[in-house]
Amino acid sequence: MFEKILVPLDGSDLAEVALPYAEELMRRLHSQLVLLCVCTANETQEQLLYLEQAAEKIGHRAQRYREKNPGVMIDDPYVETVVLNGKTSEEIIDYVEANQIALTIMATHGRSGISRWAMGSVADKVIRGINRPVCLIRARGSHAEVRPDCLVSRIFAPLDGSEAGEAALPYIEALAERLSTEVVLFQSVPKDDRSEDVTWVELEKLAKRSAKIYLRKVEGTLASKGIAARSEVEFGGNPAQEIIHLAERTRSAVVAMSTHGRTGVDRLMFGSVAEKVLRAGTTPLFLVRAPGADMPRSTSYGSRCTVSY
């Protein structure tokens, strides 16, 4: 499922913050890594040289890893460099779809970078334009801020109980199974102001019970595949803040969640829970388009308690 990983680069140190994450996954998943630059025609040779130097550095880091871990067998890194001419987002989208890229990993730039890059610019257009997963890495100007666990220590998976919300689960399963990674399942249950037949205490108990039943079914499916999983349920709070807080509290390496339906990217990027997590969180965000795109369907996990993300 993760045969090819793409990292778009623009020659900046900030964009290269995505590289340690891609290299770790390449090493652990035996993937091919593609480094891609989009530039004007008169910059082609300069960008080719830049990408070749980046590929050499990846090879040197792999060699140092072997020297530090003599008992660990790892493949020589297979790195392809590609330079395209044209509009950045369009070229990335076309390349991803034409070459069946399994995962695109991109950095977001700085504290204000989500607005500058994600909304109306390259990353936003890439998320809108491709049906394959995208992982966004928050960059604040320093390689030292890259998390050493690089996406593989623990996956935090918010679910809303819907089939669309489960779109990320096949990818979560594949990562967790191959990387021996724990999965933390999470559901935020909203208060229902329309209910007049039960007290708030009774409503909270019913909602939590329904959410726990649903998450336990997902846990059971993961456990049947040898994946360690546990669940968290919160009631009546702010879902985005809860996701951010719990992802940090559980020391999760990545938050993996889906966008909903054909118009899901609009809902993701403008005003939804995932957009708020993207803006305010610091944990890398792994995004998957919901059914309707060319992606594996998730397993059916039984009864659901639905809240829209």
Word description of this protein:
This protein is α/β, with parallel strands linked by helices and 309 residues long. It has two domains: 4-145, Rossmann fold, CATH 3.40.50.620; 154-289, 3-Layer(aba) Sandwich (Rossmann fold). The protein is 39% helix and 21% strand. It is built from ten helices and ten strands. The protein has helices at residues 19-29, 44-68, 88-98, 113-118, 122-129, 169-179, 200-223, 239-249, 264-269, 273-280; strands at residues 4-8, 32-39, 79-85, 103-109, 134-139, 154-158, 182-189, 229-235, 254-259, 285-289. Strands 3-2-1-4-5-10-9-6-7-8 form a ten-stranded mixed sheet, with helices on both faces. Strand 1 (4-8), helix 1 (19-29) and strand 2 (32-39) form a beta-alpha-beta unit. Helix 3 (88-98) runs parallel beside helix 5 and helix 8 (239-249) crosses helix 10. Residues 110-120, 141-145, 261-271 and 293-309 have low confidence and may be disordered.
Main pleated sheet: 10 strands, mixed
CATH top level assignment of the largest domain? Alpha Beta
Classify the fold: give the CATH topology of the largest domain. Answer: Rossmann fold
Helix and strand run: EHEHEHEHHEEHEHEHEHHE
The radius of gyration computed from the alpha-carbon positions, rounded to a whole number of angstroms, is: 20 Å
In total, the number of strands is: 10
Second CATH tier, the architecture of the largest domain: 3-Layer(aba) Sandwich
How many helices does DSSP assign? 10
CATH homologous group name of the largest domain: HUPs
The 3D shape can be described as globular
Helical content class: 25-40%
Strand content: 15-25%
Query: What's the average pLDDT?
Result: 79
The CA-CA distance between the termini, in Å, is 25 Å
Give me the side-by-side strand order of the main sheet.
Answer: 3-2-1-4-5-10-9-6-7-8
| SSE-based structural type | alpha/beta
**Low-pLDDT windows of residues:** 110-120, 141-145, 261-271, 293-309
As for the number of domains, it is 2
